[in-house]
Amino acid sequence: MRVLAIETSCDETAIALLEASGGLKNPRFKILENFVSSQIAIHRPFGGVVPMLAKREHQKNLPLLWRKIMDHESGIRQKNKPIIPNAKFLIPDLIAVTVGPGLEPALWTGIEFAKQIHQQLTTNKQRRKESKLVGVNHMEGHLYSFLLPSKLTTNYQLLTTKLFPAVALIVSGGHTTLLLLKNLTTYKKLGETRDDAAGECFDKVARLLGLPYPGGPEIEKIAQAGDPCAIPFPRPMLHQKNYDFSFAGLKTAVLYYLREHPLKDNSSRFKADVAASFEQAVFDVLIAKTMRAVREHKAKSVILCGGVSASKTLRASFKKAVREKKGTRLVVPDFRFSTDNAAMIGAVGYITLMKNGKDLPLLANGTMEI
Q: Which domains does the chain possess?
């Protein structure tokens, strides 16, 4: 089955074309095309994403990325041709588009573009059959991103029956959520952040340190030269018996510490120690809560996903923690599928279709739950 996927939940415009097969027992995905247009440079001067600016960029980038897919698949430049191809082999069986959560102006752009593509493909006289259009939860995209091909990790597509039950940590700029998966399609939420998401906290602390947006990679970069034990920042909710998180207090602790210890002469060592100590505090909480869930639910695997999972430091820390729990496997997506992308949206669209799940309304929902 050929799947066209569109992702515009935040500041990445992404389109992917996948070949999906195997059903729910052995889902396999071959990435035919995978394009992402980043808006980081555009939003960086503002210190964060501006929703209406993101929307305008999506409107500009979507036709360009769709054109790239057409050109790559046909092998012919079609500058003066309509945006919708006539070649039969380009017509997807399924179109999957992110409908939430995210920035609603940005989400609507992707939804309307998907509808346009679907409508024009449906009226295409050379179509093999009508393409199906489905809405996808962005967070499920992160959750199932480990199913996509990877050059750096084990091919989990071949091991899905051996991974469950599994505990999944989705950690990103907008979410920090812990899930328990009974199997590939059945899961329940164990806990989530009560205030700031981990990635959001990284962005805010980076701003306090005078670092550019996005904050996560910048903090990780300078933290390598710092001492993670230099400053005893709090580990919020670390010893509470629930699986919820809270990072707003940690952010405030960093703020107060910087007020008491000004950035004298912009000391690089001082900044590095603050960054390393803050990063360690966040990771300690994420790992402790996740591994406690693994023990209490006798999980076979830990699935680490979401944009923050692109942190090599976090991956290494989780790898060490999982290694100490014998019989447990760490499952991570390829780095290119950790941050926002359309390939993961296509994977969820296929899984949804295979399990005959209820289609999500093609309406932007900025606060959609997983």
A: 2-145+338-354 (3.30.420.40), 158-332 (3.30.420.40)
